[in-house]
Specification:
Chain B: Residues 97-232 form the BAH domain. The complex is a heterodimer of chains A (440) and B (698). Chain A has 440 residues and is an alpha/beta fold. Chain A has helices at residues 2-13, 22-41, 111-125, 136-152, 164-168, 174-183, 207-212, 226-236, 247-262, 264-276, 280-296, 307-313, 317-331, 339-349, 358-370, 397-406, 412-419, 426-439; strands at residues 45-50, 98-104, 156-162, 190-196, 216-219, 374-376, 391-393. In chain A, helix 10 (264-276) runs antiparallel to helix 11 and helix 12 (307-313) packs across helix 16 (397-406). Chain A starts with a helix and ends with a helix. Helices cover 37% and strands 17% of the residues of chain B. Chain B contains 24 helices and 22 strands. In chain B, helix 5 runs antiparallel to helix 6 and helix 12 runs parallel beside helix 14 (487-493). The radius of gyration of chain B is 34 Å and the shape is elongated. The chains are: A alpha/beta (440), B alpha/beta (698). Chains A and B meet through helix 2, helix 4, helix 6, helix 7 and strand 5 of A and helix 5, helix 6, helix 7, helix 17 and helix 19 of B.
Chain lengths: 440, 698
Amino acid sequence: MDAAMQILRCRLYDPRASPVFASAEENRRKLYDLFRHTICQACNNSALLLGPRGCAPNVGARARFERNPGDFSGSNFDRREDLLFVISPLKLLFCCFRSQVRLNGLLHADDRSALKEIAKQLCVEHELEFSKAASFEENLRFLTVILEQFSLSHKALVLVLDEFDLFAQKPKQSLLYNLLDLLQSPSSQAAVIGISCRLDADQLLEKRVRSRFSQRKILFLPPPSEEITRFLEAVLVIPVDSSANLAQHANAFNAKISAWLQMETTKELVNKLAALDSSPRNIIDSVFRNLLDYLKNTKSTTPKHPPTICALADLSVLELFLLTSMKRLENKERDTYTFNSVFKEYQDGYKSSDSYSKKAAYKAFEHLLERELIGYSDGRAVSTLSHLRPVKMLISFEELEQGLEASPICPATLRQWYSQPGDLSMFSLITFSWNVSAEA
Amino acid sequence: RSVKRDLGFSPVLLRARSRRKSRDGDRKYVSRIEWNDGVFEVGEDVYVRKLESAERDESDEEVEDCRVCGKVGGEVMIECDACLGGFHLGCLEPPLEEVPEGDWICFKCEKKEAVGEEPSRRRHRTARERLLAKELWAARIERLWMEADGSPWFSGRWYLVPEETASGRQPHNGSRELFRTKHVDHNEVESILRHCYVFCPEDFSKASNEGDDVFYCEYEYDMKWHTFKRIVDLVEEVHVDLEGCWFLHITQADHDFEEYDESKASNKKRRSSTPNKTPNKTPKRKVLRRKIFPEDSGKDLTEIEKAKIALSLSTTPGSLPCREKECKEIEAFVTDALKEGLENLGKCLYISGVPGTGKTATVLDVMRRMEKKLSSKEIQPFRFVAMNGLRLTSPEQTYTVLHEALTGQRLSWKRALQLLDERFSNCKSLGGVDSRPCILLVDELDLLVTRSQSVLYNLFDWPCRPNSRLMVIGIANTIDLPERLLPRIASRMGLQRVSFSPYSYIQLQEIISFRLSGTEAFEKPAVEFASRKVAAVSGDARRALELCRRAAELVECRQKSGNLEESNTRLIGMADVEAAVTEMFQAPHVQVAMRMCSKHAKIFLVAMVYEYHRTGMVETTFEQVSRAHSLLCSNNGEQPPDKDVLLSIGCKLGECRLLLCETGSRHRLQKLQLNFPSDDVSFALRECLDLPWIAKYL
């Protein structure tokens, strides 16, 4: 049982281990070729892997090296969780010829720290002493020399730049220039791989950098919807080992899974998910919860409402009143409004004995701001005159209406007030009468 | 028989090299040799005797004698930091209890007495003194091997004492400083005297008890241009331990690129022939071992593989075709400037051209030719310093780098600027190598533009001073860089220009064919097609080469999966180049990505187009798009998604840059815009299988 759990857990959480789509398989082959050229033929390459987030988790598959697993334990070539790849069961044993450095555009903010990180990772890998004080220039020289040494011993360096677009948005792009320039020198054997979710990432490069970039682009895309069921099956079905005495458990589990996959509700769920976002990561995340409910025979734990409606349903009565006043103001074609005008609308429009004070209303107003249901529309960060700053409602009317329906404490009078048309303002009265007279 | 240390590129060495090549097979490489009671390992530093006959026993002293009592050994000794003489602690006046912290100067030096003469006794001289007096040499063992006849040999990288450099001992040189050279010679282990220890400066300052044979080395000295380069000290630890012989040629033929190419090509073939070994390695040094390629063994390269290697950007071609004119211009500039003799006024040259037109390569090629002329004494000797604007930490770093290259001393940029300023104000007063003219190559010159433009001003002002003997060659992409600078800089640097125009298709074709000569992988029209394609866009040679390489890769890829017999004979044709062009330079990505979106993402895109056609405005808000989206959905029997989900769909499209959008927290007010022409969307989604109704909205 533990073993089965282990396998499933691996597949679900470790993208390296999960199965592969056809298109991803193709991409993996391309990458494999690219590395092979770099490592065996000393052709330096640079490539960009592009694709939406969460879209290629299964490009990676654990390499099964049959001959000598110990020697190649470090050979899984993986990148950030969704764009992983491994040089899968290769006949070529080139993994030991490769050393690898990874950078992330979010972590290594400027060119200087990025280069320092490269030097550090190389130092750690080769048990060298890393000096923190080294400057950009010194680190660059270090990189050049170590690349020379690598190429002499036929060791290729693979540099992986995650969030490549962030590196390209640096003003001078000196890191990219230098890395790509190193690839031009005969005394280096390296590949630079950029990973980005921006499809136009290569357009960000400066001319002289783009000229040095070798223009390989590999596109990772979500699988077509027909493949998703097959994919789920591949993820969830565990291998049956006939020799083990737990084979019957495995068989029982697999039967249950296939039954679940055949169920109408499951198919419906999968179709719905695929219509929204068919990236494997998203599907695994959502389907897995559902599967657990099914296996444990518990009721569905998915929330009844989408998050915005839930947030609205949790609001206090006064907050709902304020939102409704805003809606009424917008109906009166008032594009912008401030706290004061909203409060006035509330006081004028809704006349009852238990009206709230302005102070209480302001607190409620601030709370709405915090929950980002409304927002200032002037874009300034701080301002002293917060009563007079223009605000905007950030939710749509339909959502507000649904929220009022869903709210357990919303008084009936408020719902009524919501649907009641607002008093016609002076302006609309005039235009109305003008229209009438024009027709006459 | 004398030991060979050949610091010029003399014919003797070349002969030796060729002889070595033929005998490579008989050698047995080891990482450690025991010889004459000493154990020598790869990576260790040793003293080398200059002459075999030198009095071996005269002073094989490991210990130094005391300058006062003349006896050796006994008590603790202290070294004077000025004259390097040794003293027993007890022999001093007054006697010292222990070794003091910091520098210590002996009484003789304090009294400023002349040190060298020793009156009564004939002192034994230590190896260190003999080294500094140039009677011994020091080297680092790089490789050890047994020749076929059983005699042990080593290849050593030489160290120089400051006196041996062209500028002589300078005031900032330490008394135990050595310079590493790029030069490696082969000698018998017999000639090794014993160990010495060369540290990097940090370790040297820490070293306290290693005896007399400690030195430090901070710079590498370039024998050719007489420039200094700081050593990356970390790398000394990465020791490459190789059995293959090709490596040797690479290091030696470093600057000799015809030979280089040959050796590079040969390494490809021989990659698998050597056995795996390394019996013992030193614990600290990381040894990178070569392994065997099982697949490649015994297999020669196919035509396509050869072509790919030839096309690779990292392959240095023997010469640069299609740049003869520019080459001549630059050469003329350099020779003219040098010819004017020591009184020359110095000159500036500005080279411009789009990337990938061979600017830097041409200049370096000219320099190589000059170097040949230099060795045949056709022109007067000069120094050459190259730097790249994008490799500097800051524009001011230029001064530091230049000064370091000229003198081997690292200073802050302000101090360096001051010294350089003095230096170029009057070069006449300087003697020796410092009075030689200097050519400075600055790549990516535009990066040195600062707000006050002082760096550029200085760089171009120095050559104009009398007797500065400096020439500056600046390289940048823009043709009008001088005009964009302050007039006082423009007038100095804009006088002489060479402009590299983008390659025409004929030139590109020539370049590719030149690289491909000797291989039969490409059809002629294919090469022409590729060069026309590139010339039409940018005229960038790198691009053209990459394009051809990609085409070769595609063919190779197909060969592997397909039929081997028919493909081995096939050449790379037009269709393959065409495929590579579409893959590399067009952006079908966008349409493919749109086609592969989820269903609602597609509807979202169509809703954007719909809104665009309805309002005529490029920019819309999320509110409007979501309204259009739900309209489309409800009219065609689709279940409209929640607003939250829709918002995240929009944001995801924005992340891929199919849309341009504000952050999702703006929610209803979020502004959206298509990043591509709306025609792209219509084209991509017109024949969409899961949403057949969508076409009528496009």
